[in-house]
Amino acid sequence: MAAFGRQHPTRRHPGARGGSRQRTAPDSATLGIIGLVCAVAGFFVLGIVLGPVAIVCGWLAMGRTWKGPHPIPPLVAVILGAIDTLLAVIWLAGATGPTTGFF
To answer: Which helix (H) or strand (E) holds 76?
Structure first.
């Protein structure tokens, strides 16, 4: 009988005691913008790294599915990231041709 008939305050307001939950993961809009920035920057520097990063960020921002309507930045990030990666692989393959090296 320590409460003397008083109800616990969290029974009436379940979210009152814990407060709002802190979010640690970025939302889909943020991931879409990050992917778009990485895709554009990948055309100028480190395309072999920033291309796949753009693809992953865009894919996660799209909800890991191709179905349904999607915002434009994640879709552009996936497409430009794929182009970045492809151009970087072609550039690396061309750089290791038979004319390079010591012999």
So the answer is: helix 72-95
Backbone angles phi, psi at 62, to 5 degrees: -80, 0
What is the DSSP code (8-state) at residue 97? S
Instruction: Check residue 44 and give its pLDDT.
Output: 92
The whole-angstrom separation of Cα 76 and Cα 62 is 11
Closest CA to 77 of 56, 98, 95, 99: 56
Q: Is the pTM of this model over 0.90?
A: no
Q: Which of 78, 77, 80 is nearest to 88 (CA)?
A: 80
Contact between 56 and 89 under an 8 Å Cβ cutoff? The reply is: no
